[in-house]
Design goal:
By secondary structure, this protein is mostly beta strands. It has one domain. It contains two helices and ten strands. The strands form three sheets. The chain has a four-stranded antiparallel β-sheet. The chain starts with a strand and ends in a 10-residue tail after the last strand. The mean pLDDT is 89.
Length: 160
């Protein structure tokens, strides 16, 4: 990632979106509408928010073509201790997809939990890079649409 810092250290992982968040106001106008809305959402990088992408779990990636334009749909599952919603990111006008390490038929679930992501303008629209515990996924597309959907989490009991 260009601005978000994710470093693996001997003691774990340090992450810092501060440089990206400082840069985002000047990048936002260059992002397509859906990507801009997703990247600039106040909860996106708030680690205490239920709509922060950190700790979501890549579950599946679907693809198709509509009228000659390729699309991808990435489903990210919640974990009930932090999120009460699943996130679906639909990419339209997809130009490229890179999964590291290469998908050996295991799908995106092999990437494990999301650490952080970064959405940047691209000459084709936008570039969305997601860094996970066991790899990364990068999509370049004309735009993306992020949709949060309620998940099935048991109601939390108030702590005493």
């Amino acid at each position: 990632m260009r601005y978000v810092s994710v470093e693996r250290t001997r003691d774990g992982i340090t992450l810092d979106p501060a440089k990206y968040l400082r840069r985002l106001p000047s990048l936002a106008d260059s992002l397509p509408e859906g990507a801009r809305k997703f990247a600039t959402d106040a909860d996106h990088y708030d680690f205490f928010s239920q709509r922060c992408v950190k700790d979501l779990k890549p579950a599946r990636l679907m693809s198709g073509q509509t009228g000659g334009s390729r699309w991808l749909e990435l489903h990210l599952r919640h974990n009930c201790w932090k999120h009460e919603e699943d996130l679906t990111v639909r990419y339209s006008g997809v130009q490229s997809l890179t999964i590291e390490p290469a998908d050996d038929g295991l799908g995106v679930a092999q990437l494990q939990d999301v650490i952080l992501d970064e959405v940047l303008p691209d000459k084709l629209g936008c570039r969305h890079e997601i860094v996970c515990l066991a790899g990364s996924l990068t999509v370049t597309s004309q735009d993306l649409t992020a949709t949060w959907l309620p998940a099935n989490c048991p109601k939390r009991e108030p702590s005493r």
